[in-house]
Amino acid sequence: MSVEEIEEIYNFVGGAFTKSSSNDFLDVHAPASGELIARVNVSNMSDVTTAVLAAQSAQVEWASLTNMKRSKIMFKFRELVERDTDELSALIVQEHGKNFAEARAEVAKGNETVEWACGMPSLMAGRRTEVSKGVVCYDVREPLGVVVSIVPFNFPFMVPMWTVPIALAAGNCVILKPSEKVPLTMNKTAKLMAEAGVPPGVFQIIHGTKDAVNGLCDAPGLRAVTFVGSSLVAELVAKRCRANGKRVLAMGGAKNHLVALEDCDTNGAAKDIVASFAGCAGQRCMAASVLVLVGECKDLMAKVVEHASALQKGQEKGQMGPIIDAASKARILGYINGAVERGAKCLVDGRSWAKDTPGHWVGPTVLFFDSVDDPCLREEIFGPVLSVVRVDTWQKAVDIENSSPFGNAASIYTSVGAHAEWFTPRFAAGMIGVNIGVPVPREPFSFGGHANSVSKFGDFDVTGDGAMEFFTNRRKVTTKWTKIDRPTEGDCTDHANFAGQM
User: At what angle do helices 85-95 and 100-118 cross, to 10 degrees?
Assistant: First the structure.
């Protein structure tokens, strides 16, 4: 592809694709091949200000629409996403590296949240009750105003849909900052928003890196910011937003634990465990990263190794795609090499995928540890690496999960309900699975963990009810009317005459 054919990706501001005030661009490469596929224009504070002013100009009219009118536009957007699912999926495959089946599933899951947002007119209806004789209280939800959503690379469509449709349906204007690594999918999404009837300035995109993020955190006139990314950056974003008086929901990283008992369904558990840690090349916050075996579980481990070893490199259904970039690949290989040097047993070695090949590839890797102190068992790797450790009691398994500072997700594999019920209240994570390695709650339930994954950096969950709560304020009204005497019998004629004149 010649330089002249490389697509340039610009901001989407005021209903049009617009160059930033800088002339800076970042190269976008296909993870599978390393090929240059686009160049994205980098924004600065001046561009943020332009987008904020456009959103503020659009906000009053957008908020004044009825909930039903905004919902109708979201219904249209949902239909367009369904129509163009294959095109959106192809963009995800190209810029992120997922296989096509994973990309289609991502679009479908994102559109499920759009569907939920379409039903918000009934969900936003407030309460009304007579709290004492003659005194009535009621509440209504109102939009915050102009809000921001800063999203990561690993789900170019689904994660933006965690927030954008809900914020829009609630009457807010949204400025989205996609990852500079995957700008193509949201570029297409902006076109679908406009086609659906979203007015200029209501949905906008600002591209860029650190300066764009800082600008969005600092810009006056922005009421709230959501962020999904690493815990380190999530904490910085949360502190910066709060210092500027903004509501913030900043979601950090994860270290998810699977606990397997010897009574589990070996075949089903093994397939699920491998799908959890290797699906999307392990580049998702819900991926399994630690497997705690209670007892020998030899048959289970043999099946896990068998299924993981059988995975093939590629982007077709059932294959495992690449890592997003060279830096991520190097970090993952560093964890694997370090673990082996420290004495871990490499039961499945994915390092061979990284040799003599274009693109950024690391194969599924299963490491067995004798100690729970290795960095691979404690730190987020964000790649297709499963760290396994064996314990002899249920309590020791729970202690390992409880010791993690992340608190995102945890699952128990067992065929006995009473065993599952013993574990689920003892896990420290915010999202719990029973015989499921990716325990993502779906609407109306909200997505969010505990500890450093969410709660430390934000006061709400994302998607579902949590996002609706985040993107709205409740106005509470209390009314009392003085008692009106009923008309006397002689007054009825006058009232009747008056009624007849109406």
Answer: 130
CATH number of residue 368's parent domain: 3.40.309.10
Which pTM does this prediction carry? 0.91
Residue 172 lies in a domain: yes
- Same domain, yes or no: 286 and 181: no
Same domain membership, residue 261 and residue 215? no
Number of domains in the chain: 2
Residues 213 and 175 occupy one common structural domain: yes
In a domain, 492, yes or no: no
Can you tell me the distance from the alpha carbon of 398 to that of 411, in angstroms, rounded to the nearest whole number? Answer: 11
Q: Which domain holds residue 345?
A: 256-447
Name the nearest CA neighbour of 403 among 252, 251, 257. Answer: 257
Does 217 qualify as catalytic in the annotation?
Answer: no
Within this chain, do residues 210 and 329 fall inside the same structural domain, yes or no?
no
pLDDT digits (tens, 9 = 90+) for 454-467: 445 766 778 888 89
Residue-wise over 173-196: b if at least 16 C-beta within 10 A, else e? bbbbbbbbbbbbbbbbbbebbbeb
Q: 285 vs 249, 254, 353, CA distance in Å?
A: 16, 6, 23
* Dist. CA 432–CA 426, nearest whole Å: 10
- Pair 233, 270 in one domain: no
Residues 170-211: tens digit of each pLDDT: 999 999 999 999 999 999 999 999 999 999 999 999 999 999
Please identify which of the residues 241, 285, 297, 376 carries the catalytic annotation.
285
Q: Say how far apart CA 121 and CA 481 lie, in whole Å.
A: 29
Same domain, 382 and 463: no
Per-residue pLDDT reduced to its tens digit, 377-407: 999 999 999 999 999 999 999 999 999 988 7
Question: Measured at the alpha carbon of residue 58, what is the angle toward residues 52 and 61, in degrees to the nearest 5?
Answer: 150
Residue 497 lies in a domain: no
**Is 185:155 a contact under the CB 8 Å cutoff?**
no
Q: What residue has token string 């979201």?
A: 74
**Phi (first) and psi of residue 38, to 5 degrees:** -165, 170
In the chain (502 residues long), the average pLDDT of successive 10-residue segments reads: 77 97 95 97 96 98 96 98 98 98 97 96 88 90 97 97 97 98 98 98 97 96 95 92 94 93 97 97 94 97 98 95 97 98 98 92 98 94 97 97 89 97 94 92 74 58 88 93 70 51 48
In a domain, 36, yes or no: no
Task: Enumerate residues 6+ apart whose C-beta is below 8 A from 356.
Answer: none
